[in-house]
Amino acid sequence: MAERSTAAVDVADNSGDEPLTAKAEQTTADGVAQTRERDTAANEDAEDTDGSTSPGSSAPPELHSGHKLARRYRLEECVTRLDGFSSWRAVDEKLRRAVGVHLLPAEHPRARSVLAAARSSALLGDPRFVQVLDAVEENDLVYVVHEWLPDATELTALLASGPLEVHEAYQLVNQVSQAMAAAHREGLAHLRLTPSAVLRTSTGQWRIRGLAVNAALRGITSDTPQRTDTEAIGALLYAALTQRWPYEDDAYGLSGLPKDIGLIAPDQVRAGVHRGLSELAMRALVNEGATASRQDPPCTTTEDLVKAVGEMPRIRPPEPVFTAPAEYQRTTYQQGTYGRQAARPGVAQPMPPVPPPPLQSRTGKALKWAVSALLIVALGLGSWQLAEALMDRGKSDSNTSHSTDDNDNGDDHKPTKPMAIEDAREYVVKGEAQAPGDVAKTYDGDSKTFWRTKTYNDGPKLAPYKPGVGIVYDLGSAKDVSAASIALQYGGDRTTVSLYAADSLSPTTSIDSMKSIGSDTTTGTTAKIDADKPVKTRYVLLWMTALPQSGSDGYYGAGYKQALADVKFTG
After folding, report:
1. CA atoms of 424 and 434, how far apart (whole Å)
2. Are strands 423-427 and 469-488 parallel, antiparallel or unpaired?
3. Pairing mode, if any, of strands 141-146 and 469-488?
4. Is residue 567 packed enough to be buried (19+ CB in 10 Å), middle (13-18) or exposed (0-12)?
5. Secondary structure letter of residue 537 according to DSSP
6. Which of 75, 178, 408, 485 is the most buried (most CB within 10 A)?
7. Nearby residues of 427 by Cβ (< 8 Å), 6 or more positions away
8. What residues form DSSP beta bridges with 553?
9. Which residues contact 516 (CB under 8 A, 6 or more apart)?
10. Sign of the four-CA dihedral 200, 151, 99, 2
């Protein structure tokens, strides 16, 4: 069973612009000075007249579409080739999902730093960043495999049609600054946070690609990495508000500022810009020598930027616009002209004969009297039957009340009670975990939060590729479990859920040896399980073996998947 990843390739841009940091030479990890990035044509121009390449450069590996790395990653399309490395769109044949791959020779002067950056980025595991999936040195090649996001759009493409709406710009600076602050706390910096490195998914979430790796591929370093990334976020916000790049040179498909006027505030470049966001962009860009429009101190770190965004009044999304329905238009058929010839000017049209009103003939009068008589008879019979039914019901209610009173003292039935869940842990039998950090969302009392499985290509049954997915719940002490109610996120054909009595949060026995409590198969968004007989246990395994097919949502693609929103046990 292959898991489908919705991810995006970290495509290196060929704009030839200078990064926000390192306006002159950049120093690589091994101490070799590097100039700004060069595309393939620039590399060819740098060749000597005898055909040999210039010293210090490594030729990119000669690979082609269809080549496989580690007998798993099949290269499909080369999207970038510059400065000794290349970027590809590829397919992970093992998990049957699209991925992106960066390739460079093992003897490349930056190969070691690229590997180190990729492995450090992979350890972060923050979903706000495009994830590094693999970083390998093999057969004289170094390659980095990362996610591919087909449903996401680069900020570069979004700005091609105009500036962002004010709420979108607010979400951009808010989400990107929080993500980079988290990376900085772990000692990671981006150093190449350009419009092509920021993506907006179909659900409005912003994700960042190329953390640490983009800079390592180009040999970019900085003595003040936090300040560099903070200035880059300010430039992104400036571009989002004005559709202009906040420097004199054109870059990323955006026009630069007019020469010899310096860096001016966004609300002076374009009318109608939000004042608070304009000032925020200037506070971040003040690192480059700008003058803030107010006396607020500059934001030199992403933590400063996060704090400044939090102090702003929250910008709400625009109200949805409802279009009034078009005025009702009568058709020609309703006007009585359907199938008629248009009248010619000056020619009198004969009036059609008017039919007599319905039921005014002899036959019509007789029919009316017959119908009236039948209605009178029907009303009489109905009244008699209603009275008889009411009398019978009164007798039965009297008998029922007596029998209930007689049996009240002998009723041993006990009402079911909800059980509190103390802890929970994801249960993995085969393959990788689904979302272990979201397990608590299944019993936090909030129906809007949930734990979601990965997306699978085949279904509804997960077997034989994966026996199932599930969570073990700790009830705090051994209790009689007799029923469960599970709120699901996706409906469709079909979801199969089973409950088992486990021995711990991390069961040591197989599912076949666990005692079954009950199961349910549903096509809706609620699963209800009633045990034939209560089972006493402290740990309950909720196990799903079949998932419904659902469309794309967020950065989760279409396929077989399910999510648990609210799990309740009773006994």
Report:
1. 14
2. antiparallel
3. unpaired
4. buried
5. E
6. 75
7. 469, 470, 471, 472, 506, 507, 541, 543
8. 556
9. 498, 499, 500
10. positive
- Angle subtended at Cα 526 by Cα 525 and Cα 529, rounded to the nearest 5 degrees: 150
DSSP three-state, residue 542: strand
* Residue 135, both tokens: 């970083």
Q: Say yes or no to pLDDT of 462 above 50.
A: yes
Measured torsion, CA atoms of residues 159, 163, 166, 170, in degrees rounded to the nearest 10 = 40
Question: What's the residue count for the chain?
Answer: 571
Whether the CB-CB separation of 167 and 117 falls below 8 Å is answered with no
| Segment 304-338, tens digit of pLDDT | 999 999 999 989 888 776 666 666 555 554 444 44
Identify residue 474 by its one-letter amino acid code: D
Burial class of residue 416, CB neighbours in 10 A (0-12, 13-18, 19+): middle
Q: Residue 394 and residue 400: Cα distance in Å, rounded?
A: 10
Q: How far apart are CA 101 and CA 213, in angstroms?
A: 12
- Residue 83 CA to residue 106 CA, distance in Å, equals 14
Report strand pairing: 244-245 vs 255-256.
parallel
The predicted-structure confidence for 349-383, as pLDDT tens digits, reads as follows 555 555 555 555 567 677 777 778 888 877 777 77
Please say whether the beta carbons of 332 and 338 come within 8 A.
Answer: yes
* The pLDDT of residue 260: 81
The token duo for 175 is 């989400």
Rounded-to-integer distance, Cα 152 and Cα 131, Å: 14
> What is the amino acid identity at position 380?
G
In this prediction the pTM is 0.50
Distance of alpha carbon 101 from alpha carbon 99, whole angstroms:
7
The token pair that represents 570 in the structure block: 């009773």
Tell me the sheet residues that pair with 26.
34
Q: How far apart are the first and last CA of the chain?
A: 36
